[in-house]
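Researcher: Please predict.
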Amino acid sequence: MTTTGSTAVTAPGDTDADWVHLSRRTLSPDAADRIAELAALAAGAPTGLVQLLEDRSMLMSGGFALPDAWTDLGAVPAGSTLAGLILDSGCPLVVHDVHDDERVPPDAPIRRADARAYLGYPVRSRTGAVVGVCAVVDYRPREWTAAEQSVVGHAAEVCGTFVAEREARQSTDRRQRFLDAVLDNLHDGVVACDADGRRVLINAPMLRFTGRTPAPFTAGGYPLDFGLRHADGRPMAPDDTPLSRAFRGEELHGLEVLAGPARERPRVLLVDGQPIADAAGTPLGAVIALQDVTELKRTERFRNCELAVTSALAEASSAEEAGPRVLEAVVGTLGWAHAELWLVDGPGGVLRTAAHWSAPGSVAEMYVPDQLAYGQGISGRAWLTGEPVWIRDLADGGALLPADTIETSQLHAALAIPVRSGTGTLGVLAFFAEVVEDPEDTLVALLAGIAAHVGQFLERRRAEDLELQLARSKDEYLALIGHEMRTPLTSISAYTSLLREASAAQLAADGPALLEVIDRNTTLLRGIIDDLLDLAALDTGHATVQMTPCDLAEVVREAVGAALSSLTGSSITLHATLPDSLVLPGDRMRLRRVLDNLIGNAIKYSPDGGAVTVTLTADGDYAAELTVSDHGIGIPPEERDRLFSRFYRSSRTRDRAIPGSGLGLAISRAIIERHHGTIALLNPESGTSFQIRLPRNSSE
C-alpha cells in the first residue's frame, strides 16, 4: 500500500486496495466542476463528475449537469459505487450498458439516476496512489470510442495535477502551522530574514521581547534594536546587532546583550545566531534565537550579594569598617549606583551617616549630609515609618532629595530599608539607581534580609562594646556610687555619734538640728536608692508605663508653675511658650518627672539673673517637640557623650560643688525611650539646651 503522508485507508473487504484518505478540500469545487464539464463536453457525454475518496466513502467533489438523484448524494460507501471498482483495480472502467454489466453493484447510485453508460478513470495523487475518479455518464447505452476514453483519461490526469498541487499546498500549510505553533510556544525569541534581508519569520516571544507588531523590515533595519546594548552597557550600532552579524555570515553562540529603554533596568539576553545557506553554499538569509536570562542572572546576583555581605560583616570589627564593605557589595552585585548607611543617634535624635558608596563612574555628584532629622529624606522617612520606602523615579515629584541633587546625580529609583533589631530601629540602608525601576517584592525581601544581617551585626558589636565599656568602667562606677551613697551615710553616722555622746543639756540644745541633718541625708539616700531601682526597672522593661491620652501642654504648664513657685525671691526668670493643648499617648506622672528634672537642672545651673525658657511645639502630625534651655554653666564638649550615663556629673558641676546624684538625666532618657521618643543635648553657643521629641500617635 502506498501512502503520501496522510492516513492510509482500506476499502471494505479489500485489504490490498491502494486507496488514500483525502479530504475533498484538496480540490476546490470550482476546479472540480470545471474539469467535470470539460470531460463531458470533450467526450460528448451529457454529464461529468469528479469524486474523491474520504473516510472510505466517495464524495461528489464536482459535477456537470448532474441528475436530480445525485444533487444531495452525500457520502456513499466506495464498495457500492462504480468508482469503487476503479479504486479496487486502479484501472479505467468502461460500461456500455449498466443493465447488461454484471460488475455494476445492485445498489449503485448510477442505477437511481437512470444512467446507462459510464466511463471513468482513476485520479492519482503525486505519489501515484488512487485518490478519486473522473467520469462521464450517458443516459443511453453507447460504445465509448478510444478518443472519448482518451479525453476522460486526460481530464483525470488534470484532476490529479490539481489534487497534487492542492495537497502540496495543504501539506506546506500544515507544516507551517506546526512550525509556527512550535516557535510561538518556545521560551526563546526567534527571527529570520531571507537573502534580501527581508523578515520571513518572527515568533511570539520575539514580539514580546521587542514590544512590537510584526511590521516588515529590510536589511539594515532589523527588529532586534529595542534599546540594544553590549554587555558592558555601551549602545549597540545597527551593524552590530546579532541579526546583522548573522546576516553577514557570522555564527554567534551565547552572546550576552542588554535590552530595554535607557532609563529602565535592562533585561539580559543570550543570543545564538547563524547564516542560512543551501547545499551549494548560496546564502539564503540568517536566523537568531534569544533567551531572556534576566531572572537567572538576577538570582545569581542575589546569591553573590548575600555572600559578599556576609563576608564583609564577618571580616569587619566595627560599623564604620563594615559599612563601606556592605555598601560596595550591594552596589557592585545588584547594579545600583549609590548606597548609604545611616545609624540612629538616640541622644541626638537624628540619623548620622556611617558610610556611603558610589559605583565608579556612576554618580556624577552625590551630596551626603552628616545627619538627617526624623522623617527627613528617604532615609528619615524609612526611620519614621519603620517600613521600606521605594520611589520609582525621584524626578516624578515624589522626591525626598533636593532637586539639584537629583539633577546633578542623575538618580532615578531609590529604596530605603530600616535596619532593625527586635522592635527598635538602629539605622537605615538607602540605595539609589540611575534607572527608573518599579517596586519589586523579591528585591525588597533580599535587601530587608541584608538589613537584618546588618542589624544583627550592629547589635552584636553594640553588646560587645557595652561589655568592654562595663569592664572598663566597673571600678569607676563602684567609686561613683560608693561616693554618692557614702557621703550621706557618713553624715548620718557622724551625727548619730554626736547624739549618742551628747549630754542631756547638749541634746536639748543641739538635738533637733542634728536630727534634721540625719533626716535630710536619710531622705537623700532613700532618693538615690529609689532612683536606682526605678532606673533598673525602666531599663529592663519591668517598670509600669501607663500609655493613655495625655495633654502634654497641661503637664508642662503644671511643671512650670511648680518651678515658678520655687523661684520666689530669686533673680532667675522662667519663660514658657506653650500651645493650648497638645495630646499624645503617654504616662502623665513619668513625663512630669522628666520635666521636673530638666527644668530643675536648668534653674540649678543658671547664675543669678539667668533665664530659663521652655518651648513646646507640634512638628506636623508626627511628633511633639519640647525644648528646655538655659544660659548657665553648660557642658564641656568632650563630656557630652557621657551626659546620660548613670551617676555622671560634669566637671563644672563638681568644681562648683553643686549637689546632685547624677541619675536625673539617665532616668529621663529611659522614660522618654519607653515613650518611643528621643532626648538630645543641643549645641547652643552658651548654657545648655535639651530637646525631647515624642510621637503623637501610638504607631510611631
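Model: Residues 441-501 form the longest helix (61 residues).
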